[in-house]
Design brief:
mainly alpha
Length: about 425
């Protein structure tokens, strides 16, 4: 157990100092074997087998398809049509541009697989739109950060794929389990900004004529079909997560090349290159994570931790609260995908030991880890937001805190009432 703790400390230290996650986890794993067996007897054969068998997984193929879909949609400027659609749909509400921000984030949820990437990419556009509409920088930045939390939760969700694989759960069912809480977060945030709009008498925009709204809706139908195909295909049982991702990527390519003629073959080739590069980074991370997972399982680490937690208290609610606090702290330092790869092998057996719903717990874990990216003093997304919005870090943290409480409420409801994450799986059944 001591060797595992040393390896874990090394991994976390290297991550904090900025070494890429895959190299950090691999270094910690190698250090464990050196301490445990000596440098001469490194189990290279076992490590290579674990890597190969770990990533030899059909559900993992969903990740490149999701990334390809995201890059194609980005290059084809489809986001402009969706943005115009949401603007005509809810922009005339009081404080409407905040609603536009949240609804657009829900529609494009998961296209990058990372809340931080959503903040840096889509978030810039949504933030600038609010600034041009007369909103303060602090409020605009806070809304943009809060809406980015939806990204890693609503399918397609790369963190959900990784959690399901490490916890040996169904990817499709975890997708459906994340869908309910993800939509609920969006709705709670909409209520939140509605209340703020009335309190502070935020500006409203003229309501567009029905003809204009219909025109923007018709133009947005083709790109809106991409997430619809994903969700409906999975809900109806016609697609696995991987097949749904492939169909959505194909549809995105058709839209970019044929419908909108915004992508030529040269740009498409570049998009495939970017997809291969981004997919390789995640796959390498997954591969080395399986080695560390094997170390944890072989040394009974999850069982030992579960026994230690049970000695502290046998009250399930307190144990879950401790795990949520752990996720929140971890999310401050690590990207959601990295954190999921690192902790899922530890917490998944504990969840089964406590008798909790593994899918509800998985959805809750992804929500809280995503919140960690916006939690001071180390939240990565906060620094990204503060950098391009030029809002002081402490000011931004103060403005975003009420939104985090709203999101945290959904996380608590998700674990207290499993009917929320299980609504869509039950509907499918």
């Amino acid at each position: 157990m001591e060797e595992v703790l040393i390896a874990l400390v090394i991994i976390l230290a290297l991550l904090v100092f900025g070494l890429p996650a895959s190299f950090s986890i691999l270094t910690g794993s190698v250090v464990f074997f050196i301490i445990n067996r000596g440098i001469v007897d490194l189990p290279l054969t076992q490590m290579s087998r674990t890597v190969v068998y770990g990533i030899d997984s059909f559900p993992l193929l969903a990740i490149p398809t999701f990334i390809l879909m995201a890059h194609v949609l980005s290059e084809s400027k489809v986001i402009n049509l969706i943005f115009d659609f949401t603007h005509k749909l809810v922009g005339h509400w009081r404080g409407g541009l905040a609603h536009v921000n949240i609804v657009a984030s829900m529609i494009f949820a998961g296209k990058s697989g990372s809340g931080t990437a959503d903040v840096a990419g889509l978030g810039r556009i949504l933030y600038q739109n609010m600034i041009e509409g007369g909103y303060t920088r602090s409020y605009s930045a806070a809304v943009t950060g809060a809406s980015s939390v939806v990204g890693p939760i609503i399918p397609p969700s790369i963190p959900a794929v990784m959690y399901a694989i490490h916890a040996e759960l169904s990817v499709v069912r975890l997708f459906l389990a994340c869908l309910g809480p993800g939509i609920l977060i969006g709705l709670f945030l909409l209520v939140h900004v509605t209340v703020l709009a009335k309190i502070h008498n935020l500006p409203t925009l003229p309501k567009p004529a029905m003809k204009i709204r219909m025109e923007s809706t018709v133009k947005a139908i083709p790109p809106l079909m991409v997430p619809v195909i994903l969700i409906v295909g999975i809900l109806s049982g016609q697609f696995t997560a991987t097949e749904a991702g492939a169909m959505a990527a194909l549809l995105a390519i058709v839209l970019g090349i044929i419908v909108y003629r915004a992508i030529g073959f040269k740009k498409l080739y570049y998009t495939f290159q970017r997809t291969a590069h981004d997919s390789a980074k995640i796959m390498i991370l997954a591969a080395v994570s399986f080695v560390f997972s094997w170390i944890l399982a072989r040394n009974r680490v999850p069982i030992i931790i579960a026994e230690e937690l049970m000695e502290i208290t046998e009250i399930t609610f307190i144990l879950v609260a401790l795990l949520m606090l752990f996720f929140l702290i971890l999310g401050c330092f690590l990207a959601v995908v990295v954190a999921v790869n690192l902790v899922t092998p530890i917490v998944a057996p504990i969840v089964m030991e406590l008798g909790l719903d593994p899918y509800a717990f998985g959805a809750m874990a992804i929500i809280v880890l995503s919140m960690g990216n916006l939690t001071p003093p180390f939240g990565v997304s906060l620094y990204v937001l503060s950098d391009y919005t030029r809002v002081p870090f402490l000011t931004l943290a103060w403005y975003i805190a009420p939104f985090l409480l709203t999101i945290f409420l959904v996380a608590i409801l998700t674990i207290l009432f499993p009917a929320i994450p299980n609504f869509f799986p039950s509907f499918l059944n």
